[in-house]
């Protein structure tokens, strides 16, 4: 468990991380997302003390990171960077074994560990163990980067945009590897990205950051269905080509052709219910009554209202296509 309590990071007088508080659970795949400069890398690097925090505290398993021996802390937290940080003139095995070597593992244990890890990512150990890293493709190198972070079996792995330089197919395949490894090996992963689709693919929970602050923390579903504010909505709109805000019945009530007050009702719905709920209700009843949360009044909605609403949406969409 990693706990941030009111953490600040200042450069001169500017806070680049501001009053940051949250808990990352053990075994969780936690994604930090936000635009460039929002403080993601700074937040990540404060966990393994590559950057010192200015105020507040970060604890791992209830113990403040400043109370850990620094070397011990770093060795027990795996770290994967965007720019492949392998040593190009060393072999795959030598790269994987950097931390186990420092920890002075037995030779046999190290050999077996390389075999096991390469097998886990479908790279034949006998083919790849002695290859120079510089002879591998970018995707293979980053796969070794991931394996290397796992080598000494750390409980926590930090990843800073590790796949952002890869082509989409290689990226997907590495995302699948990492998700599977995380589940099999039960690691806590803190993963930084600026790619919303990647965050959705990977994260158990996602934290949306902006200018050093948290805009929203939740599962992908929670964030997609209930974006907390305009920043998150805009981030979803620009980051996901097929994103559509979920419309609610209130969107229909806002139309000027809905005005009839209702006395009798065949079905009752709340204005915050989805349009899907309204469609289902109207398939069973020619009209339904809705209590409007905004005006407090009760209004009657008919099938005609719904069809008219959908038709207008379609026309707006068609008109918008040309504007790209
Ligand atoms: P992200 O990873 O989200 O792109 P960073 O955490 O790298 O953002 O940076 C957050 C902010 O802190 C940026 O505005 C950046 O310019 C600033 N920053 C980062 N490192 C330093 C530094 N060493 N000195 C001054 N400002 C810095
Ligand atoms: Mg960064």
Descriptive overview:
There is one protein chain. It is built from 14 helices and 13 strands. It has helices spanning 40-47, 70-75, 92-96, 98-102, 107-120, 125-128, 138-150, 168-185, 196-202, 220-225, 230-239, 249-253, 275-284, 303-321; strands at residues 2-11, 14-24, 29-33, 55-60, 63-64, 77-80, 156-160, 188-193, 205-210, 213-218, 268-270, 287-291, 298-302. α7 runs parallel beside α8. The chain folds into 2 domains: 2-239, P-loop containing nucleotide triphosphate hydrolases (Rossmann fold), CATH 3.40.50; 249-323. A hairpin with a 2-residue loop joins β4 (55-60) and β5 (63-64). The chain has a 6-stranded mixed β-sheet with strand order 6-7-8-3-9-10, with helices on both faces. A 4-stranded antiparallel β-sheet has the order 2-1-4-5, with helices on one face. The protein has a 3-stranded mixed β-sheet with strand order 11-12-13. The radius of gyration is 25 Å and the shape is elongated. Helix content is 40%, strand content 23%. It is α/β, with parallel strands linked by helices and 324 residues long. The structure holds adenosine-5'-diphosphate and magnesium ion. Adenosine-5'-diphosphate (ADP) binds at residues 11, 16, 34, 36-42.
Strand order of the largest sheet: 6-7-8-3-9-10
Q: Count the domains.
A: 2
Global Rg = 25 Å
The low-confidence parts are none
CATH class category label of the largest domain: Alpha Beta
- SS-derived structural category: alpha/beta
Q: Tell how many strands the DSSP assignment holds.
A: 13
- Per DSSP, what share of the residues sits in E-state strands of 2 or more residues? 15-25%
- CATH structural fold name of the largest domain: Rossmann fold
H/E topology pattern? EEEHEEHEHHHHHEHEHEEHHHEHEEH
Number of helices: 14
Which small-molecule ligands are present, each listed once?
adenosine-5'-diphosphate, magnesium ion
- By CATH's scheme, which homologous superfamily of the largest domain applies? P-loop containing nucleotide triphosphate hydrolases
CATH architecture annotation of the largest domain: 3-Layer(aba) Sandwich
What's the main sheet like?
6 strands, mixed
Task: State the distance separating the first and last CA atoms.
Answer: 44 Å
Q: Helix coverage percent of residues?
A: 40-55%
Mean pLDDT: 92
What is the 3D form? elongated
Protein name: ABC transporter ATP-binding protein
GO molecular function, one term: ATP binding
Pfam family, one: ABC_tran
InterPro entries: AAA+_ATPase, ABC_transporter-like_ATP-bd, ABC_transporter-like_CS, P-loop_NTPase
């Amino acid at each position: 468990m990693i706990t941030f309590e009111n953490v600040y990071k200042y450069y001169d007088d500017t806070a680049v991380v501001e009053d940051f508080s949250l808990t990352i659970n053990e075994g969780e795949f936690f994604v930090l997302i936000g635009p460039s400069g929002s403080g993601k890398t700074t937040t990540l690097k404060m966990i393994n003390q590559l950057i010192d925090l200015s105020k507040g505290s970060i604890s791992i398993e209830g113990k403040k990171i400043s109370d850990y021996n620094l070397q011990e802390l770093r060795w027990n937290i795996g770290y994967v960077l965007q720019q492949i940080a392998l040593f190009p003139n060393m072999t795959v095995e030598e790269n994987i074994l950097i931390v186990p070597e420092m920890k002075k593992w037995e030779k046999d244990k190290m050999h077996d560990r390389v075999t096991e890890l390469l097998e886990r990512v479908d790279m034949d150990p006998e083919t790849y163990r002695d290859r120079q890293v510089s002879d591998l493709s970018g995707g293979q190198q980053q796969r070794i980067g991931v394996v290397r972070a796992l080598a000494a079996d750390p409980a926590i792995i930090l990843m800073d945009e590790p796949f952002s330089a890869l082509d989409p197919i290689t990226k997907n395949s590495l995302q699948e590897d990492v998700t599977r490894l995380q589940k099999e090996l039960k690691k806590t992963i803190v993963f930084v990205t600026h790619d919303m689709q990647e965050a959705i693919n990977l994260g158990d929970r996602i934290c949306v950051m902006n200018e050093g602050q948290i805009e929203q923390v939740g599962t992908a579903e929670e964030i997609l269905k209930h974006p907390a504010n305009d920043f998150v909505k805009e981030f979803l709109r620009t980051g996901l080509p097929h994103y559509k805000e979920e419309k609610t019945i209130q969107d229909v009530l806002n139309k000027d052709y809905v005005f009839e007050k209702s006395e009798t009702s065949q079905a009752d719905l709340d204005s915050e219910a989805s349009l899907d709920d309204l469609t289902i209700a109207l398939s069973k009843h020619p009209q339904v009554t809705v209590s409007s949360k905004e005006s407090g009044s009760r209004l009657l909605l008919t099938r005609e209202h719904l069809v008219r609403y959908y038709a207008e949406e379609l026309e707006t969409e068609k008109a918008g296509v040309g504007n790209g």
